[in-house]
Amino acid sequence: HSIVPSDELPAVHTPPGREVAVELVGVHKWYGEFHVLKDINLKVKRGERIVICGPSGSGKSTMIRCINRLEEHQQGSIVVDGVELTNDLKRIDEIRREVGMCFQHFNLFPHLTILENCTLAPIWVRKMPKKDAEELAMHFLKKVKIPEQAGKFPGQLSGGQQQRVAIARALCMKPKIMLFDEPTSALDPEMVKEVLETMVSLAEEGMTMLCVTHEMGFARQVANRVIFMDAGQIIESNEPNAFFSNPQHERTKLFLSQIL
Ligand code: ADP
Ligand code: MG
Fold first, then answer.
1. How large is the ipTM?
2. Which residue owns the Cα nearest ligand 1 atom 7?
3. Predicted confidence (pLDDT) at residue 11 exceeds the cutoff of 80
4. Which ligand is nearest to the CA of 104?
5. Less CB within 10 Å around the terminal CB: N or C of the chain?
6. Would you give the distance in Å from CA 251 to the centre of its chain?
7. Any idea where the ABC transporter domain is (predicted)?
8. What distance in angstroms lies between residue 57's CA and the mean position of ligand 1's atoms?
9. How far apart are CA 23 and CA 140, in angstroms?
10. Alpha carbon of 227 to ligand 2 centroid (Å)
11. Which distant-in-sequence residues (6+ apart) come within 8 Å of 125 by Cβ?
């Protein structure tokens, strides 16, 4: 897919003392007996955009979901925005407020309008007055270019539009970090571009992003780093040009030969 050209991505912005947005150190996770994450080490600086790729079942979703504690890790440490993820529920809530997430299946509330989907969390979690929440929601619906859909229900929108609502909804919480888990892989090809364009514009505004995606055009265009996972491990991590032109490991080469 060709996506909007944007040669002017912001430099990574790192205020002193707070330069690390997410850090995983020696993270292991098991599902029962199954060792799904094996010694994951990853440091994401504020404003960095990381693309994560790898074969199905390699642990990409699990890793992303550990970062906002939708899944629990058993060993190692995960620090998000200066807060270590432990079993302290209050802290988990704090983190979830700062971390926006978009899934493959948009997970909108089907019985709520687009506007209500976007205002729900700001009203109930951020305690924002309804009117302000609606204003904010309209701002982000304009940003993702579907303000005219505000009064409709998710089922009345195309997949691409629903995914853009999901992004707008996440942005309404003013997240410091955005996690994407294959946001375009459930979409018809003609809708992929509009969602990628939305993600590119977020990148241009300096959002810290971790994106699981196989859209390698997007990776080349916006990623500071591309990470390749296989069998629960980070096998390779490099800046996009080097990653694509000179992959170091056989498994990375094989994967790239299959998807490019
Ligand atoms: P990916 O996103 O890279 O495709 P996942 O993180 O979804 O990989 O899954 C990694 C592995 O963990 C797969 O083998 C998957 O079957 C397994 N898995 C994922 N979720 C669960 C779960 N809730 N319980 C048990 N096994 C799981
Ligand atoms: Mg997955």
1. 0.98
2. 61
3. no
4. 2
5. C
6. 24
7. 22-256
8. 6
9. 29
10. 14
11. 97, 173
For residue 14, pLDDT beyond 70: no
Atom of ligand 1 nearest to the CA of 31: 25
Q: What is the pLDDT of residues 162-176, one digit of tens each?
A: 999 999 999 999 999
Classify strands 20-31 and 34-45 as parallel, antiparallel or unpaired: antiparallel
Determine the distance separating the centroid of ligand 2 and the alpha carbon of 37, expressed in angstroms: 13
DSSP result, 149-205: GTTS-GGGS-HHHHHHHHHHHHHTT--SEEEEESTTTTS-HHHHHHHHHHHHHHHHT
Band of pLDDT at residue 65, cut at 50, 70 and 90: very high
Q: Is the pTM of this model over 0.90?
A: yes
Give me 160's structure tokens: 């691409």
Q: Average pLDDT in the 116-137 region?
A: 96
* Beta partners for residue 175, in sequence order: none
Nearest residue (by CA) to ligand 1, atom 17, is: 57
